[in-house]
Amino acid sequence: MFKYTFKTSVLALALVSLIAFSCKTKQEATTEDSAKLSVDFEKYELENGLDVILHQDKSDPIISLAIQYGVGSNREKTGRTGFAHLFEHMLFQESENVPQDQFFKTIQDAGGTLNGGTWKDGTIYYEIVPNNAMETVMWLESDRMGYLINTVTEAAFQNQQEVVQNEKRQRVDNNPYGHTGWVIDKNLYPEGHPYNWQVIGELEDLQNATVEDVKEFYDRFYGPNNATLVLAGDFDTAEAKKMIEKYFGEIKRRQEVEPLKPQPVTISETKRLYHEDNFATAPQLNMVWPTVEQYTDDAYALDFLGEILSQGKKAPLYKVLVKEKDLTARTIAYNSSNELAGDFQISITANNGVDLDEVEKGISESFALFEKDGVTDRDIERIKAGLETQFYNGISSVLGKSFQLARYNVFTGNPGFITEDIENIKKVTKEDVVRVYNKYIKDKPYVMTSFVPKGQLELITENSEKANVVEEEIKENISKTVEEANSEIVKTPSKFDRSKPPVQGSAPELSIPELWTASLGNGLKVSGIEQNEIPTVNFSLVIEGGHLLDDMKKNGVANLMSDILMEGTANKTPEQLEEAIDLLGASINMYTTDESIVIRGNTLTRNFDKTMDLVTEILLEPRWDEEELGRIKTKTINQIERSDANPNIVADRVYNKILYGEKHIFSYPTVGTVESVKAITMDDLKAYYNKNFSPSISTFQVVGKIEKEAVLKDLKGLEERWAPKQVTIPEYPVANNRDKTSLYFVDIPNAKQSVINIGYIGLPRTDKDFYPTEVMNYKLGGSFSGNVNLILREEKGYTYGARTNFSGSKIPGTFTASSSVRTNTTGESVQIFKDEISKYKEGISPEDLEFTKNALIKSNARRFETQGSLLGMLQEMNEYNLPANYIESEEATVRNMTLEQHKALANKYLDASKMAYLVVGDAATQFAQFKKMGFDEVKLLDKNGEEVKLEDVKL
């Protein structure tokens, strides 16, 4: 399950005075472009105390059910941390009437998706399904709310203890700077304060937790009287109310949960701590000040302060630390106000080798600059402008609406708090920003952390003390055997037979949105979909080529192009361009992929024309700023060097080199190497631009509240000014010519997990077999209910997740099986992957094929909900020249697949005896075993994929 994190209200919501949530009555308001938007809801309470909120949205035949409980890690106590998150995992196992591992499978079988999340102040569970499965969702959620605890056995509990520990290893222990949050919270919040520990919990507490602990926690916090249920989407209100009463109404109240009162903290003196980080390659400084709880006047102003100090080229931190002193490539400052308290944090990951004392001095100079320049009305205006667009994006899906309604209800008691929230944002002034700076930051004590690479203690700030970080010791894997009780599960009485799943009605029929196409005079192909739910537009300009057009000797030019073009234009400085975008409430981003350079944007409908003027200026009037190029190169080199500390990035880089070989451009990272980036000049960028940027190899996609005629009118400037040219995209032959099993191992000393990638070259997206192979792969590892995940995670508890997939574009991609597993289970996990891939060729059961068909076909009801998903569909169609009804063809492929065809595809495209097996982990404890496991060859590689002699490595 994901760790659900809510940022402060301004980052989740926006300044939109014209929108209101209303109780029972719908309020509508008009924007400048005459768009109408309403978000109405009805709230009532069941006799058992469950708050119910209903919001109808008929735009798509889907519904979202979200249940938020008033329990997060803030309800735990010292010595028993991590329970809220651990219990979130337990609720996905089984309940009295839902068998083991059937929560995910039942929802996927209905064409839906589900998940849950825990943060400091809450826990939420949700499902999104076609509306014919509404009763199924009610049945599932009510069963785990009221009919679960009798199924919590020692064996099931032990399994999820292992899964959560693996999640901690993956997110915290095996990541650079992963322990930062722990060090900060231990020193900012006193012992016993609900924010003194991490959501994931202490490893020792997770290991020592008992079933009785879990049962007590469930009884105390998981009653209906401590929960809010939000149903959003396309449903009949009377029918929904009847179902909610049937499934949730008879669940008994549990212990009363008293609301927690705010507990803001203060510290009497500055605390300076350091930690030698096993995975970091660059030093990082964090400064954190205690602030106030959410929804207070000061919290809103502090949110603005974070933006003004760090975001954009006008920001004092950027001007001093990046532009003037070249100490870092990025500055971060933000306020995090939660239910009980808040903190304001500045986080600076310095350039390699930078002394953090210099960063600290730079922050002080940035504060002095802020005090000198102050805050302008224009600063406030540009922040507020972006918030409107953010708000619309936040409610573009039924799930987004569910989350916001639930959050407001739990923390304010009023789902309609949006109106007050917006007013609080609106009234923030420049004087407020200066006031909270003086009140909470200026000359106030703070917690400072210096995280530096191993052996680089000279980089920590002066007078720092060693942080008491506890590193897990790698031990031999010892399997625990838990005797399962043979007694039958005791069923909690119910007014009806809950053991029978509800019968679902007919699934919604596929309804592909109407799209339009056009070709401009310069050869640019344009396609669009008009979607009128919210007054925004999402668009993308895709220029073919990207990394494919890189010179291997100067790899990384395409990637630098994406960055340099966003650094001002011929008529605008980088700062002026950034401000022009911000004042429109727009976002424009450019990035490079293996096969394209993409400009992607999001803006309010009323500002689409001005946004496209800026896109045209960015594209056709480059500034070619040498000073900015220097900063971009430094940032890119830092990124490359830091990637060596990330086992997942190392695994992907080495994996591509093994499979594609040194003569294929895909064996070189898109970002380049340190040496290649250093060698790139402005002339190289200009040559790439002049040779390869052409409308003849480009497509423009647009989705939103805008008509075709308006789009084409606003593209006139691009049509008239962008002349076509002949561009030849090189071809790199690639084939699957592997003929043996090879085990490759990359050493990450003291790694707490091993990253595993297994596979070989597969198919291009354009191959007729590509989509059928995706269908074939679904039950192997294409979903949570895939065989490899059910074994490695749910049965063994070795990992947080395991997957298999086929990737591919116009160029053959790969078949890859992957996971991050607990270090001491590495060898067994590799063998399980190998065995399951081989076994899959024997065929699957009729039930598994039916599950695959249901999951893939019924999920199409959710495929067209948001502007982002529709934009992705258009890009896929244009990239691979697919017909408008290609999704209908895919449905037919799924519907018509037979067991024989499935088996034939598995035998044709899965051969575990010819795959490359890559492990990135701790060689000292894990490498030797693979020599005895029957591989045709076993090799030790470095982080760049070059073979290492065994005598050069300490094993």
From TrEMBL:
Classification via PANTHER family: METALLOPROTEASE (PTHR11851), MITOCHONDRIAL-PROCESSING PEPTIDASE SUBUNIT ALPHA (PTHR11851:SF49)
Keyword Signal: yes
SUPFAM superfamilies in the record: LuxS/MPP-like metallohydrolase
Record flagged with keyword Cell inner membrane: no
Domain Peptidase M16 C-terminal: 209-387, 680-856
Family stated for the protein in its record: Belongs to the peptidase M16 family.
Region forming the signal peptide: 1-22
Residue intervals of the Peptidase M16 N-terminal domain: 52-175, 532-658
Gene3D superfamilies: Metalloenzyme, LuxS/M16 peptidase-like
GO MF annotations, alphabetized: metal ion binding
Official protein name in the record: Insulinase family protein
InterPro entries associated with the record: Metalloenz_LuxS/M16, MPP/UQCRC_Complex, Pept_M16_N, Peptidase_M16_C
UniProt entry keywords in alphabetical sequence: Signal
Pfam short name (any one): Peptidase_M16_C
